[in-house]
Amino acid sequence: MHCDTALLARYDGFGSVTRCGHGFVHVQLGQTTLTFSEAQYQRFVAMLADSAANFEMQRLAREGLGAETYDHTESEGQDAEYPDILPS
């Protein structure tokens, strides 16, 4: 059975992100593909955004410009928008 896909992003020589007709998001990097539900994908993107911000803050801290890393607080223990996905 054929499944229609929509290309969400592609970086030549790096990877791509597609959404299939079954409601899954596929993140392909080289020979590796991660498959997420839409809720899991949104949570994954949020985690990557947090890690990118922390990466930059740590770089600034190393340069003596000061910054604190972001960590989820206890009140954020369960994401109301994605109740099926538990944070680490």
Rg of Cα set: 16 Å
Strand-pairing-aware structural class: alpha+beta
Query: What's the count of strands?
Result: 4
Report the mean per-residue pLDDT as an integer: 82
State the order of secondary-structure elements, H for helix, E for strand: EEEEH
DSSP summary: helix tally: 1
List the strand order in the largest sheet.
Answer: 1-2-3-4
Number of domains: 1
Overall shape: it is elongated
Biggest sheet, open or closed, and with what strands and sense? 4 strands, antiparallel
Distance between the termini: 36 Å
Could you list the spans in which at least 5 consecutive residues all have pLDDT below 50?
none
Bin the helical content: 25-40%
β content, as a range? Answer: 25-35%
The gist of it:
The chain is an alpha+beta fold and 88 residues long. The protein is built from one helix and four strands.
What does this structure look like?
With 88 residues, the protein is of the alpha+beta class. It has one domain (5-69). It has one helix and four strands. A four-stranded antiparallel beta sheet has the order 1-2-3-4. Strand 3 (24-29) and strand 4 (32-37) form a beta hairpin. It starts with a strand and ends in a 26-residue tail after the last helix.
Topology:
Elements: E1 5-11, E2 15-20, E3 24-29, E4 32-37, H1 38-62
Antiparallel strand pairs: 1-2, 2-3, 3-4
Search tags:
28% strand, alpha+beta, 4-stranded antiparallel beta sheet, 28% helix, elongated, 88 residues
